[in-house]
## 1
Amino acid sequence: KEAIQAVEESGIVFIDEIDKIVNSGDYKGADASAEGVQRDLLPLIEGSTIQTKYGNVTTDYILFIASGAFHSAKPSDLLAELQGRLPIRVELNALTEADLYRILTEPEASLISQQRALLATEHVSLQFTDDAVKEIARVASLANRTVENIGARRLHTCIERIMDDVSFDACDYPPGSLVTIDKDYVQKKVDDFLVQSDLSKYIL
């Protein structure tokens, strides 16, 4: 009962990739039900009572936040009624190199922390120098600018490439070993990645 009350009074619902249910202009995509999905969302956002396995939940005071890339459609292509219920529109800037560095260092479960935890299962300690982390952020930012901007997901690609050999060989290291990833090692691992990224622009 307390949980339902907390949801009704302080709940926040985040609807991601709302642009996927938008038909741009006169074009009707393969999903003919896109407008139907918008109409189904409308009563939820306007405020209604929803049946759940925990009981009825009223959405009148729940905050709804929607986001989308809107590459092939515009927010104005949404149903007029839905636009009216999402009145505040904000355009976000692309992640900068500094933002990517913060993503790698500040969260408790950052990608680097996850890699440390994975190697710890093999009794191997992992250390990234600060210069290495900055280099990863620089490479990810550069790849986003030159190829396709996929945001923080680019960090996954970089970390995977850097950790590929280390993760594979971790079981062969003596217990208690320390592996240090420095800037030179990062550059060696992602150098061909940037070359491939540059070439990918010209491949149809």
## 2
Amino acid sequence: MHDFHEYDADKSGYIEIREFLPLCTQINKAFDLGAPTAQDVFSAMKIFDLNQDGKLSPDEFWNLIHKVLQAMLVKELEANRSNQIKADKTEIREIMNDAAFMKELIESAKQSFKLHDKDGSGTLEAREFYYVLKEINSAFNLPSPNVDDVNNALEFFDKNQDGKIDFEEFVKLMKKILEIIADSEIESRHVNKAKAQQEARKVKEYPLTIS
């Protein structure tokens, strides 16, 4: 893709529109895109043909290649970030399934469950469960739950469908909330890291609109 003369088939010193198709095809392939249409080729030529003479000079070609390499680097960074996020989330799940972690979670959940189980019945009825959800929503800067929110959450976490949340179900709820918080922190951390990497490399995303 980097050899100007490879695409300058007639050795005119320029890449005309008919010679531009193989280059566009190679670029699309690098980004896992389909074969470019005639409109794609003409659109790309219009973008990178800076003096609008209908062909690419060596300088215009290298400007195109520079933008393509930038976009490829950004793509690679995004792919690496996505893979690392998945790996970090997997590690978090392994930690949360560890016996020591679960022991600590259960002990913490006991205190919270006892606090919300106002009538000491050993279960959280809908009216008691409402305050659990209210505290969770508050932690995420969300509005207080309505009746539908409570019913939907009950339906999801009330595995035995008795209309209330027992302690085992409560522990699973707490674990799910911790997973959501951890996932959010992981994603935020990697987004910030990616921004720092791009700034360090002076990389700017370039919308390569040829397909």
## 3
Amino acid sequence: TKSAGNFTTNGKSMSSIPRLAYPGFWWRVASLALIMTGASPVEIGSVLAEHHPTIHELVKMVTSGRYRFPTVDCDDMKRDDMKKEESKMRSLESDLAELLFLPPKPKAKEVEKPTIPHGSRVSQRQRQRQERLLQQKRAKEAAEALAAEHKRKKMLKAAQKSIMIWDPKGPARKPPKESVNLILSVERMFDLSHTFQKCVESDLILQALGGTSRGAIER
């Protein structure tokens, strides 16, 4: 972890910025790891599966032929845990993207107190006109704030696609849509599903099923 002082974003304090990766490169390396697993399931594949959860889950997807996250071997509890971990990582990456790439949020404007004139010389028509102008001003400010927030969300979504937390031994990550085709093409090119299914030394089929129980097989 690279220390970078104290940071605050969305009211959350960060004492340091974790190591980051570019998602496109990350998933290319993950695809290469799949190829290496197919070339040497015991010497390389077993080590990757044991120490790198994301590679482990990708092997399950390829072996089972069912590309879903959480993977098909998960029961309800494990599925919920994987979803929570992915959501937690995505939330942290969103905070980091906002911190690194977006300008600070402008301070909220103080609510302007009405300045509607009163007194015997002020007609009802004048007061109604002043109230109408004030309402129009407030509506315009609200619309501008909404448009600015919408623009910021779009910028944040685009920025978030450019980074991910570099933690190979951390929680298993869900492949983004942009990288799914790469994984599928690697599987077809090297016939990885059949390679994994034929591997008896590291028992990849059993790992993909999640066990020999009826529930595991039905899943």
